[in-house]
Every structure is written in C-alpha cells, then in structure tokens.
C-alpha cells in the first residue's frame, strides 16, 4: 500500500512518514503542492496525506486536481484550522477525510488504513487465506493459530498477495505497491522478500510462483 505525504513542515512530514513506514506502508514525501502534482502524475497512490496550507500550489488546488483526474487516490487533508466551517470546506473540495492539527500519529494511521480499504475494491478488515490470518490494523499475522513475526516489507507483500484472493500478483505490481519511488526497478528485492516470507511462513508452502505472471496464494 503506497502513500504520498505532502506537508511543508518537514519535521511533521518526516514524523508521519516514519510512523507509516513502521505500519508497512510504502511512503513518498514532498514539501509543496507543485512537487506533489508531479508525483501524482508519475505514480499511483492509495492515499494522499495532504496538508491544506502548502506553498507553490495550495493544498485545495491539489485536492481539486486529484478529484478532477478521477484518481483512485483517497485524500486525507490536514490543517491547523480545525473549525467546523474549515472541515466542511475541505470535504467539499473532494477530500475523503479531514484531520485537524495537532493529531496523534496512531489516529492518523488508523484513518489511512481505513482509506486504503476504500481506494481499491472492498476487502475485509482482516485477511484470511490458506490458514493465514493477517490483521493490517494491528500488524499481526498468524498461520494456523501460530503468530508469525514479519518485517515491514514482508508484511506488505503478504497483504498484497492475500488481497489478490488467489490471483497472481506480478513483481512489477509489488514494486509499485510496496516500495517507494527510490527503488531500483531492476532490483531482485521482490524475489528476495518472497523467499524470506516463505521461510517465515513455514511448511507446507503456500506462496507459489506462476510462470511469467508473478506470485499467488491459491
């Protein structure tokens, strides 16, 4: 699941990004509205965490353009103005949710999790398949009742495979959804992560390679 954080206060932006990465999101960052539009043109995001008061291009205009483009990206708008009129104004622009500053990171991540479920076809809050149970909000994975400890990327890859409901997910799709824009597109990181994931999930294997299509959990 991929998130774009657009916030001109760098300490806040860095804090949001660090927190969301701990929650196994792939996070890109930018600090002004013009750069945000460039990123949105180049990449596909599940959620945009968007500060309203941005330099160069105002956050309101960024939100308008996201909506006008009929993007599937969901917008969580942030602002220091938390009055009712401001919240209504933000939502009327097409934002999907609105969070006034100051906020708790735990609440922000809960709202991002909720929006990711709306950015794609509906998925249950807890994903289950082949004896694996994954709770994205709690960051927990069990196989046949046994807890499994996964790294952030392994957790995110498993989430994507479970969301596919038996269909194959290509390495290119996993790179797009799980890693940020700095990843080398020619890297073998997906294969290595799949190998680590399979080792931690144990026997019998449940993740299979589909020739020329990717990986799947049948």
TrEMBL record:
What are the record keywords, sorted? Answer: DNA-binding, Phosphoprotein
Q: Which GO terms describe its molecular function?
A: phosphorelay response regulator activity; transcription cis-regulatory region binding
Q: Enumerate the InterPro entries for this protein.
A: CheY-like_superfamily, OmpR/PhoB-type_DNA-bd, Sig_transdc_resp-reg_C-effctor, Sig_transdc_resp-reg_receiver, WalR-like, WH-like_DNA-bd_sf
Residue ranges: DNA binding: 124-218
SUPFAM superfamilies in alphabetical order: C-terminal effector domain of the bipartite response regulators, CheY-like
- Where the record annotates domain OmpR/PhoB-type, the positions are 124-218
- Ranges annotated as spanning the membrane: none
Please name one Pfam family that this protein belongs to: Response_reg
User: What species is given as this protein's source?
Assistant: Bailinhaonella thermotolerans
Note the CDD domains from the entry: trans_reg_C
Would you tell me the protein name for this molecule? DNA-binding response regulator
Biological process according to GO:
regulation of DNA-templated transcription
Q: Does the keyword Transport belong to this entry?
A: no
CC per GO annotation: cytosol; protein-DNA complex
Which intervals hold domain Response regulatory? 2-116
* Residues recorded as bearing 4-aspartylphosphate in the entry: 51
């Amino acid at each position: 699941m991929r998130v774009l954080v657009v916030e001109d206060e760098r300490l806040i932006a860095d804090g949001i990004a660090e927190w969301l990465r701990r929650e196994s999101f792939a996070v890109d960052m930018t600090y002004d509205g013009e750069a945000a539009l460039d990123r949105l043109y180049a990449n596909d995001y599940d959620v945009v965490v968007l500060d309203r008061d941005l330099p160069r291009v105002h956050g309101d205009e960024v939100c308008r353009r996201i909506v006008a483009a009929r993007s599937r990206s969901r917008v969580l708008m942030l602002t220091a103005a938390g009055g009712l009129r401001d919240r209504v104004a933000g939502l009327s622009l097409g934002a999907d949710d609105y969070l006034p500053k100051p906020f708790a990171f735990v609440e922000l991540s809960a709202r991002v999790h909720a929006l990711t479920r709306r950015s794609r076809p509906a998925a249950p809050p807890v994903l289950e398949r082949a004896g694996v149970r994954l709770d994205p909000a709690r960051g927990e994975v069990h196989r046949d009742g046994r807890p499994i400890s996964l790294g952030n990327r392994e957790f995110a890859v498993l989430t994507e495979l479970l969301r596919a409901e038996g269909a194959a997910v290509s390495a290119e799709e996993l790179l797009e959804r799980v890693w940020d824009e700095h990843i080398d597109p020619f890297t073998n990181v997906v294969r290595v992560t799949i190998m680590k994931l399979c080792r931690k999930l144990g026997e019998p294997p449940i993740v299979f390679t589909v020739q020329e299509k990717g990986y799947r959990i049948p």
